[in-house]
Amino acid sequence: MASSSIRNPGAEAKKGAADRREARIPPIGLAGTLNVPESAHALVAFAHGSGSSRFSPRNTLVAEALNAQGVATLLFDLLTQEEESDRQNVFDIPLLAERLLDAVRWLEGEPQVNRLPLGLFGASTGAAAALVAAAQLGDRVGAIVSRGGRPDLAGAALDRVGAPTLLIVGGVDYSVIDLNRQALARLPGPKALEIVPGASHLFPEPGAIEAVIDHATRWFERYLQSNSARAASHRT
């Protein structure tokens, strides 16, 4: 299926507002939303977790914060509605990683963003998909952030992820903390683990998602800015 993107109609966007475009990502036409702020200097693609979609309220909050800092974002569905009905697909990390790779390939063909440094943001099982995809994309990925993720599910790909990786975990998500610590030890590149005190797996507590946003935006700002030259070199 050919890709398509539809610019939202309406009055001229106010300065600093994101240019919102709805897309169908080939080859199967996964639905996505690309937001590109004026003078965007980086791009982050999101991989949502099990039982979620491009409308995830938590990922949307993170994406909006990144947009406000001049970072373009892509939120998209990793599975079709039919595929979501089969719970096995939700935990099929190779499948989810391939869908994320499809999205990155689509972004490579979008002149508005294809020269921007690329980051990946994964939540829950989407974090494992982001790490598997990053292992294949190599230097094209400048930074990765995992929120409440299961990086352990990335398996052998963990040993090949060179991109700077931040793992964010809730302070009372005890079993996931242990899994993240084990995964952190295997990552060969720059890495960090941030534990949000008092937060559970979905970060619903007051101030928890704000802490996630703060950690994530700082990480992307630090590493995607420093990788601007690398991304430009990659494209040429």
Can I get a quick summary?
This protein is α/β, with parallel strands linked by helices. It has helices spanning 57-68, 81-84, 87-90, 93-108, 125-137, 174-186, 208-226, 228-235; strands at residues 4-7, 18-25, 30-37, 42-47, 71-76, 118-123, 141-147, 165-170, 191-196.
Looking at the overall shape, the CATH architecture is 3-Layer(aba) Sandwich
Briefly note the CATH topology name. Rossmann fold
| Tally of domains | 1
Strand share of the residues? 15-25%
Radius of gyration: 16 Å
Determine the CATH superfamily: Alpha/Beta hydrolase fold, catalytic domain
- Helix count equals 8
CATH class: Alpha Beta
Q: Point out poorly predicted stretches.
A: 1-16, 229-236
Indicate the overall shape: globular
Helix content: 25-40%
Through-space gap between termini: 27 Å
| SSE sequence, one letter per element | EEEEHEHHHEHEEHEHH
How confident is the prediction overall: mean pLDDT? 89
**Overall SS class:** alpha/beta
Tally the beta strands: 9
Biggest beta sheet attributes = 9 strands, mixed
- Within the largest sheet, what's the order of strands? 1-2-3-5-4-6-7-8-9
